Amino acid sequence: MTSAELGGQEAYRISRVIGNNFVCIIDPDGREVILRGLGIGFKKQSGDLVPACKVEKIYDLRDPEKSSRLMELLGDVPAEFLDVSTEIIEEAKRMTGRRLSENIYITLTDHICFAVERLRTGTAYSNQLLWENPTEFAMGIQALDIIERRLGYRLSKDEAGFIALHIVNAEIDGRMADMVRITELISRIVAEVQAYYGVALDDQSLDYGRFITHLKFLGQRITQGQYAQDNDSEFQSMIVRRYRYDYQCAERIRDDLAQAFSIRLPPEEMTFLTIHLHRLAMNMGISDKEE
After folding, report:
1. Taking the alpha carbons of 94, 150, 64, 1 in that order, is the dihedral positive or negative?
2. What is the DSSP letter of 58?
3. Which domain of life is it from (predicted)?
4. Is residue 73 in a domain?
5. Rounded to an integer, what distance in angstroms lies between the CA atom of residue 189 and that of residue 222?
6. pLDDT for res 242
7. Is residue 66 part of a domain?
8. How far apart are alpha carbons 36 and 38 in whole angstroms?
9. Boundaries of domain holding 41
10. Domain annotation covers residue 2
11. Number of C-alpha atoms within 13 angstroms, CB side, residue 285?
């Protein structure tokens, strides 16, 4: 979206402040739009004006739910992560020549933040799916350079594959049959998680969205028959020991998928699923059980 599409105003009235560099305004159609610009939210409040010349980027997520999740994410992660994701996404659009789902602004920003966190703590994932989609993987490699230049962290080549997955997932050309199967798979897993932990997951929350993103990628790997591979058995054993309670949930999911779809999740996928289950449980206050 451009400033002209916002009415070509010289200044915009803030509806709410998200952070020093992000504010919301109401566009001519009555929808909330996110503006980014250096310091445009600093010491500002609802009703104040922001000069149009200070606006560097306009995030117009048409889906109110996605817009709300992006705002929630901006409250959790440093703004520069969204800046980095935006640069990667714009370059991906140029390289692939394809439209991308608006949701990638949320999922890729969150992934990069989590990847940097894993790098800091020494718990980076390996990714053996390197890589069936050469254009997207090349974009993933370029994304590593962007992340290093903007954030000062050099992520591993494995992360290029994960970033490529986000780009593929956002491309608007999915096969309907696969989408239906993946949707059914996700529904079964969510039902199993809610039954195991004894809670109703908030499908409007950022944590839920993060978990669903992982399940979408899992569903894609299942439909393609290309499972994650990681020969680090010591890491797998550590996850099983440390997150035993969450691993037991993963076992229930594995057994249900085997019965319903004749799918057998390998140990590597069980490890990743357990990590995401534990993250979901901890962030939503479901469980703090570790052994």
Report:
1. negative
2. E
3. Bacteria
4. no
5. 14
6. 93
7. no
8. 7
9. 11-60
10. no
11. 3
